[in-house]
Amino acid sequence: MDFFSWPPIAAVLDAAYGFVTALSTAVEPVAGTAATLVAIVVLTVLVRLILIPVGISQVRAEYTRRRLAPALAELQRTHRANRELLARKTMELYQAERTSPFAGILPLLAQLPVISLVYAVFTHATIAGHANTLLGEHVFGAPLGTSFVGLAGSASVWPGFWVYAVVLILIAAVTTVSRRVLALPQPGGGAAPTGAVRALSFLPYVTVVFAAFVPLAAAVYILTSTAWTVVERATLRHLLDPERGRAEPSTSQ
Q1: Model-level pTM?
Q2: 212 Cβ neighbours under 8 A, 6+ residues apart
Q3: DSSP string, 46-73
Q4: Under a CB-based contact definition with an 8 Å cutoff, are residues 211 and 219 in contact?
Q5: pLDDT of 14
Q6: Cα angle vertex 232, ends 247, 172, to 5°?
Q7: Nearest Cα to 227, choosing from 90, 48, 95, 74?
Q8: Does residue 174 contact residue 232 with C-beta atoms inside 8 Å?
Q9: 142-143 and 138-139 as β-strands: parallel, antiparallel, unpaired?
Q10: Angle between helices 106-121 and 52-79 (to 10 degrees)
Q11: What gap in Å lies between CA 151 and CA 250, rounded to an integer?
Q12: How confident is the model at residue 92 (pLDDT cuts 50, 70, 90)?
């Protein structure tokens, strides 16, 4: 049974379909044939605006974990032989600081339902019993309801191929900026990253691979959301940096 055919979920999916359709109709006089694409971007921005409080909590959690890094390292050095005690002491430290080691994944989890909805809107021929007209929408010759991989296997690759290629290249570029700009330096310079850590730093590029397998509409959502994350995180880190708060009084004297 299709999960999205379950009546409560189907109703939410139909509401998402109606919202994207209404946005597309509203911007069509200005955006023309790219109206549906613009609607997806607007939808993404609205979702990320709602999630700003989650982003604030994530940045605060990052600074808290950075501040706790020396204490965590000391716990690991002291209790490395007793894993159970180490786990308990670590959780006690996080509880005392009113934070959690899992705080960083909250924004991702919060966006998963939206990505799933966008994916479903552009992969279901029928939604809540009626035809899905969005599947026929194109932007610059590329069908919004087809993935890059799906287009590559079809007879009519051009000119849509270039639209998909540009979107995937932009996702890779934004991911690169994210890795280089948003990496927090470790206190005191920190130790050189190990091979495993360096390998994990390339994990965000899995997003590019994922985007190649989802409909173009969902890939545009991923691109817009990733770009928003870079700008939002850089801005919030500047505003919430605890060092900034301590430095400002001295500069005003």
Answers
A1: 0.78
A2: 147, 148, 149, 164, 168, 219
A3: HHHHHTHHHHHHHHHHHHHHHHHHHHHH
A4: yes
A5: 92
A6: 125
A7: 48
A8: no
A9: antiparallel
A10: 130
A11: 59
A12: confident
